[in-house]
Amino acid sequence: MRTSRGAWSVAGLVAGAAGLATSYCAAMVMTIRDSPVVAVVEQLIRLVPGAVIEKAIRLVGAADKPLLVLGVVVALGALFAWAGRLARRSWWMPAVVFGVLAAIGAVAVLAQRGAGGTDLVPVAVGFVTWVVCLSVLTDPLRRADVLAVEHRERAEPADDLPALHRHTRRGFVLRAGLMSAVAVALGVFGRAVGSGRRHVEKSRRLLKLDGVTEGQVPAGARVDLADVSPWRTPNDEFYLIHTALVVPAIEPADWTLRITGMVDRPMEITYAELVARELTQSWITLNCVSNEVGGDLIGNAWWSGVRIADLLAEAGVQEGADAVKQTSDDGWTCGTPLEALTDDRDAVLAVAMNGRPLPIEHGFPVRTIVPGLYGYVSATKWVRELEVTRFEDFEAYWTTKGWGERGPVKMSSRVDVPRTDADVPAGPVRFGGVAWAQHTGVATVEIAVDGGEWVPVEVARPGTDDTWVQWVGEMELEPGDHAVRVRMTDKTGAVQTGVEAGVLPDGATGWHERSFSVVEA
């Protein structure tokens, strides 16, 4: 009677988990941002077509990355179990499986921005752990199988086999349990060693930025209606879209920005030098190109930073340049029209958000903010380099996935009140929401109920064209089911189109509509 296939599968799973733990621990000890597993997942994110990413965001929202990680872990578990079963047939077959996995991890690690030979050390540690641990775990199983065959060939009594297998199971369970405990301990140790993020968070909390204020909401920015999106979006409620699985944790003292490319005087500036410059502060609405009509991937905040136009002027932009390639600490890139960084808008290297240093997830210590452009072509978190160049000479992260090159924000509007399927008391029904036409400005907002004529509503006047505006209106309606649409007109006289289009390749269009019911009080 040979040992069961299940025992060999368990051996593969335990050895695989041990390899992942030692690899993760090595990465944390060496202060490498990405463990091999994280690097693989981030490469998968980069390789997935834009349409697939957009669908995932629509279906699961912020859970897309955790679900992808879970999928990778499940796949690895299946491969580890398979490798364990292969070890029953030959020692070299599982080594090939582990070698292929290590090679995939190595390629993913080297694809990270700034990666070098030392970044492969965690991959090598994981591979060696896999091979050694599987050998240690399967040794008693293999010896038991050999003894069982010899026992059968000698035609010895079968009564001896149960005792043999009990001894084998005890040895296997002891080794597997000890190895699992060590793997857990190494994972915990790696997490403790990798406390750099916590230290950066502490540095961020203690950071004092001269000249940064919380920003006063303009007197004319608010309308008198509850449940309309607030003028200021709190930091912890601001939408988050980025490709990094593990966001960079950068100490301000370690941050520098390079201005390179088609400039007369290449520059490198430290964080201390940046915040010592004159800061500009303004309300700016940030909008994701993945925002569906009526969606919530949009927010408004008080941003503090240094104007990019001033820095580019110091560097001396050369004739013929029309773009700036921005690069993040995690290697993400975007291409921004040069004119959007050098005209009179407040395109900034932001260091604070709503009066506080940027949250780590929102780009601490420095990110870019450019009014009037979708984030995918402008809002680089953890920015490290601005390369003045030409659009024809490079491709950025999202443009390789079918998105538009320049990404100007499209005018849009949204109904916040009443909520979809809400029951509203009969009588005067109040409507409200937000509208935006960044860097152009909102002139008027209109609503239409049940397909009727367009009726103008009251629009707040915040005194800036780079933000959204709140709007409010009122209408007498009879009891029953109703639907309301909204549209806006910008300050050039352009009317928001009702033609429905998806977010690809450069932003959604259409009129937002909500259905609701008016009921007798």
Explain the overall architecture.
This protein folds into 3 domains: 5-194, no CATH class; 235-401, Sulfite Oxidase, Chain A, domain 2, CATH 3.90.420.10; 412-519, Immunoglobulin-like (Sandwich), CATH 2.60.40. It is globular. The protein starts with a helix and ends with a strand. The chain is of the alpha+beta class. It has 11 helices and 19 strands. The mean pLDDT is 89. Helix 1 (5-29) packs antiparallel against helix 6 (121-153), helix 1 runs parallel beside helix 7 and helix 5 (92-110) packs antiparallel against helix 6.
Order of helices and strands: HHHHHHHHEEHEEHEEHEEEEEEEEEEEEE
Report the sheet with the most strands, covering strand number, pairing sense and barrel closure: 5 strands, mixed
Please give the number of β-strands: 19
Helix proportion = 25-40%
**Helix count, DSSP H or I runs of 4 or more residues:** 11
**Overall pLDDT score:** 89
Q: N- to C-terminal separation?
A: 78 Å
What would you call the structural class? alpha+beta
Unreliable stretches covering 5 or more consecutive residues: none
Strand-residue fraction? 15-25%
Strand order of the largest sheet: 2-1-10-5-6
Our Rg estimate from Cα atoms comes to: 29 Å
